[in-house]
Amino acid sequence: MTGGNRGIGLAIARAFEAAGDKVAVTHRGSGAPEGLLGVHCDVTDTEQVSAAFDEAEAAHGRIEVLVANAGITDDGLLLRMDDDQFDGVVDANLAGSYRVAKRAASSMLRNRRGRMIFVSSVVGLSGGAGQANYAASKAGLVGFARSVARELGSRSITANVVAPGFVTTDMTEALSEQRKKEILDQVPLARFAEPDEVAGAVTWLASESAGYVTGAVIPVDGGVGMGH
Fold first, then answer.
1. What strand order describes the sheet that includes 217-220?
2. φ and ψ at 128, to 5 degrees?
3. Which residues pair with 119 in a beta bridge?
4. Which residues form the Ketoreductase domain (predicted)?
5. Annotated catalytic, 98?
6. What DSSP string describes 174-208?
7. Which one is catalytic: 16, 134, 144, 192?
């Protein structure tokens, strides 16, 4: 999986590990958490993506499940956002997912089965002031996943999207109490999600139980995105 060394990504990686799966996570130099195979990869670089998959498959065999979780933010109001801000976020979040999905597909086609899960965001469906680049990249994952689902479904390869809302991470912990209250006032369940709750949706989509689910967007947002 990409972006599996902290936060939501680490919770997902640990959930697969706990289920007995062989897990490889990408990183950009920080290394992988203990017990996980780390492969160096910047998802904006096609050659690094190819090399990372080669390394992971040499250790664990052909890729059966891809979780595309790597992503960045670079917020700014539209009139102040420059091209590099917009292009950089879209390249990492959307084009990065394209690069890893394309490489994973070659292994999955040989296996004649596979699961692709793309981690989007409630912001991709609802939008967010100051996040035109991030929202566009996360919304793009929906169209991308559904196109993959149509292309590869006949080979028993599914492609789905998980759209988390506000999740307890280092980033949300750093928010002021006032800002936390403002956010929670929008959430019907009146709390942040735990990373393990997002991981539960991802591992379910990767399981045999979800074999007939493809092209879906699964919200894990406490209800904040209802209606989108």
1. 65-68, 114-119, 157-164, 217-220
2. -155, 125
3. 162
4. 2-170
5. no
6. TS-HHHHHHHHTT-TT-SPBPHHHHHHHHHHHTSG
7. 134
Phi and psi angles of residue 74, each rounded to the nearest 5 degrees, phi first: -155, 75
Pair of tokens at residue 62:
């052909």
Going by C-alpha positions, the residue among 142, 173, 43 that lies closest to residue 100 is 43
Looking at this protein, which amino acid is placed at residue 204?
W
Domains of the chain: 7-164+196-220 (3.40.50.720)
pLDDT score at 130: 94
Name the token pair of 203. Answer: 């591992």
pTM of the predicted model, to two decimals? 0.95
* Average pLDDT of the segment spanning 116-124: 96
* pLDDT confidence band for 33 (50 / 70 / 90): confident
C-alpha distances (whole Å) from 15 to each of 33, 85, 216 are: 13, 33, 21
